[in-house]
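Running low. Invent one:
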Amino acid sequence: MSRPEDRFRHEPKARPGDIFLFHRAQGLNRVITWFTRSRYYHVAIFAGGYEVIEARPRGVVRRDLRGKEGAHHYIVLPQSESAGMNALAWAESKIGDRYDHLDIFVIVAERVFRHLRINYTARNKFTCGKFIACAFSETGADLFPGRSTAGIVPANFAHFVIRGNASPALESPP
């Protein structure tokens, strides 16, 4: 029987502050990929070792990718060292903040009713996409210039992959 830590052969090849964009959704995460018409369902910031900092339904947490929640398939979106480290420091300062459940409903409503624009912003509550977008914009490296961080979803990070800014897929072993 394999142990959770056996799911990695090697430490992730990323630098702290790089963005992890998760794909190959399973379970309820498939709803996100279906709804956004994207293969990407989650985004987090790499903290080093096997850890990421991310916004999850239980709040902003530091999570070990080898833990029971699994080492999912992801690609790395490399960031400049200064931008990544600044964003990581900001993200670490937000551990314990709450998840923004209401923003999920706003995102859904705006996608179902395309003409609808809801002016909703919650401070210190995050969805995963909003959390990573805020981590960079709050430290001066705006990933989505001219766009509010509210409503940012993992699919929005796909343009970094398409432009070739991602490293080759780094995945946990099957």
Q: What stands out?
A: Residues 1-9, 167-174 have pLDDT under 50 and may be disordered. The first helix runs from residue 29 to 36. Helices lie at 29-36, 81-93, 101-112, 128-137, 158-162. The first strand starts at residue 19 and ends at 23.
